[in-house]
Predict the structure.
Amino acid sequence: MSNTSAQEVEAKARQYYDSNDADNFYYQIWGGEDIHIGWYKDMEEPIFDASRRTVERMASKLKQPEGARLLDIGAGYGGSCRYLVKNKGYDCTALNLSVVQNDRDRQMNKEQGLDDRIDVVDGTFEDLPFEDNSFDMVWSQDAILHSGDRKLVFKEVDRVLKPGGEFIFTDPMQKPDVDEKLLAPVLARIDLSSMGSIEVYEQYAKELGWEVVEVERATEKLVMHYSRVLQELKSRETELKGAVSDDYIERMKTGLNHWIRAGEEGALSWGILHFRKKA
């Protein structure tokens, strides 16, 4: 994508996540900590619990020692960083483009006594405001799809990672050579012309000389997640009125159904991708 289109994608993402409707929806539905796909045991499980299990599963794959530096790109409300500080002893930096989400993140860090261990930075992952070789790990959850230049995101991650550093992330992705008609409603909803794929991300890693540590495919979790969010939205619709506009709720229902349908029809993929920079 061109620089102009990448900037347009960034501006639309920032406008969306800074809106009162989006902020109130995500904060209320996900429990205020996480905004990513959950690792569900069943469809009755709370979204918060399943979302936190994804964090736990990803964290278990990291073997860096206590005190290592981790950067979360597209950090949302920063729940992953708070978990990693408390349970892994990492020093974390949460980078995110939404000022509204970052304000909530900083407040929760302060309330939980973690503001001295987590640095919340306003910024984008196509232009990371950090020195070369600054971090032992880079982490991201379901955020890279919003980039207008995903290859540049990988290059920036490579730049700020120390030699031997790890990049672990999840992302809603498309299957290779998928029928564009199946993806069109999803792409229209998120104002994008394409999504990444496991194969494309592995190719980026190869070009950078990275090692593929593990790719854990779990597309069924994506379908379960959007189904569970739709179920939760319908059950709490009355409660959300006043905080979230009727128009946003209806558009969200439509969008969630598009994600579910595309997943069920085999157009999407999702999982945990774990790479290591060459030492």
User: Anything to note?
Assistant: The domain at 3-276 is CATH 3.40.50.150 (Rossmann fold). The first helix runs from residue 3 to 18. The two ends are 30 Å apart (CA to CA).
